[in-house]
Write a structure and sequence with these properties.
It contains 4 helices and 6 strands. With 141 residues, the chain is of the alpha+beta class.
């Protein structure tokens, strides 16, 4: 897996997965996304009757495999989740950032359905970084 280094005053930081507190009802979706070695969840909320639930996440693998991963995740979500629930999958670039932030939004009552769909995609997307890199190079040539 590639390293993305951040300078924090005197120490270099690298992304790792840690245990953290999340809203109880969004936990299944956060857990499903964190099954991907290359995904780092950064923020989430279980929503309420007036607001959708959401999870923000980043890709922390090699830069050349990032677009392939996001594309295939979207493709697989379309296959596994679309027939069962409504969701939004967004990639956003914020000013000053060099990489996108992804977001999944879903109605609170459909969190479990989307989490099950994401769990289905992990089986299909658990390919090595070298496979993504190879696909990326093939697409660019």
């Amino acid at each position: 897996m590639g390293k993305i280094l951040f300078l924090n005053k005197q120490h270099t930081e690298i992304p790792i997965k840690v245990n953290g507190w999340v809203d109880e009802k969004i936990a299944p979706l956060v857990l499903a996304l964190n099954k991907f070695d290359c995904v780092l969840t950064t923020d989430s909320c279980q929503g309420n009757k007036d607001k959708p639930a959401y999870v923000f996440f980043k890709y922390i693998g090699s830069p050349e495999s990032e677009p392939i991963f996001f594309y295939h995740l979207g493709e697989l979500l379309n296959r596994f989740a679309t027939p069962k629930c409504d969701y939004e999958y967004k990639l956003q670039w914020y000013s000053g950032n060099t990489e996108p932030m992804a977001e999944l939004l879903v109605l609170p009552e459909q969190i479990k359905v989307l989490a099950d769909a994401v769990n289905s995609t992990t089986n299909s997307l658990h390919k090595s970084e070298s496979v993504y890199g190879k696909l990326y190079r093939e697409l660019r040539s």
